[in-house]
Amino acid sequence: MPDDAMPPAPDSRLVKALVEDLPVPSLLLEGPAHRIAYVNPAFAAAVGRPAAWLVGRTAAEAFPRQAVAGRVPLLDQVRAEGQPVLRRAQPLRLKASEARFWDLEATPLRHAGGGGVTGILLQCRDVTAQQQALRQGEAARATLDALFAHVPEGLAIVDGRAARMRRVSAHGLAMVGRAEAEVLGQDAAARPRTWQIYHPDGVTLARPEELPLSRAAAQGELVQNSAWLMRDAQGRLIPVLCNAGPIRDATGRVTGAILAWRDVSALRQAEDALRQALAAQQMLAREADHRIKNSLQLVAALLRLQSGRAADPMTRAALEAATARVRAVAEAHRALQNSADLRSVQLADMLRDLAAAAGALHPGADIRTLAPDGLSLDAERAIPLALVLSELVTNALKHAYPEGQGGPVYLMAEACGDRLLAAVADDGVGLPAAGMPGGSLGETVVRSLARQIGASLTRGANGARGLRVALDLPLDANAMAEPSPGSSAGAGPPPT
After folding, report:
1. Global confidence as pTM
2. Residues of the chain with CATH 3.30.450.20
3. Report for 210-214, 398-402, 461-465: range of highest mean pLDDT
4. The predicted structure's pLDDT at residue 299
5. What is the crossing angle of helices 379-399 and 313-337, to 10°?
6. CA within 20 to 30 Å of 48's CA: 61, 78, 314, 344, which one?
7. Three-state DSSP class for 496?
């Protein structure tokens, strides 16, 4: 039907007054051909065309992508039925360069005197952002569905401060042998008995407000690695580790909470097995140190027996020195055997054992030890250090005081920052008479072992009289370095 044969057109002035300033893109179509009579500025901006280009064209000419056989079906339906039509989220490319989603609302217009449809008011609302949000929400929901269906973890989501159960994962339900209908809709008050949740003692049933999910929902608390016992589908109490956190809306208000829990029975069994293996390893290591110590003590006893039978004084002295060295290593192993971790030696214990061993070889000797409890050194350096200190103590007992006289010998260790200071001191005749002979085996042993453990070695007067020989080395084996020549160290004054 030609346009000039159509009924009188609607009054475009009234339509213009209604939609001119609306932000909703709107256009007025006239006659059976749906010729564009008016577009508001919002519509012109939406299609990227000036109003003058659009007015006078048919809808099919202006928007050929929406036309079928030269007609626009939506508009034909409105004209034929005379009723408004709403099409939601239509993917339209009103601009050639941009596809967006639109809600299309087509309203039939009639002449003031009644009769048939004379025109159509088409309004388009851009819902692209809402559609994108909806699709993102659908993707997130699909991801959540997959998590709750397939992840081998217990997962639960609750609503509100009452922590009303909204969703539970398939694995979580299978773990406790429950059907979804049994637990959905439950609030926190019913949860401990329904799920049979106990404190780690396995006797005390959990109170609702104690549970991680309740704390997260009611208080907005983040609960991490909380240990509980839960009765599984076979009726056993299994250890579970729980993590829960609040769910907040855009304003920060807590609207619910989410919980993840896992059965850690296998982990606990592995930990127990590892603890047992470590305990067995430590027992074997302690037994090895005990046997080493006993063997060294046996060697020391044989050397001492041999020295007692030696007629030559030099031979006897050499055997006694060897006995002292073997006993020093034995006492270091004793201290290592008594240590908590078998990797470090408590120096206070080691010094006391060295003093006792030296006293056994030199009856009546006055050997005094000073070291704080808790001061330790790694085993690899503690045994060489024990040998060095044993040599220095033996030397002091032999040379510090005139023959026939005696006095105290001090065996000391202390921490100074990240350094260990160990010293042997006396109140004897001092450096000239008490120095260890430079070419002796003892001097060679002392210097060689000091280098081995990264210690600087110095000699000096001990106050007004006597001699102090000190070693300075790092407490941390990783910081060990070759000592620089001429470096000095002190171990403080000897005890009085």
Report:
1. 0.46
2. 3-131, 151-263
3. 210-214
4. 64
5. 140
6. 78
7. coil
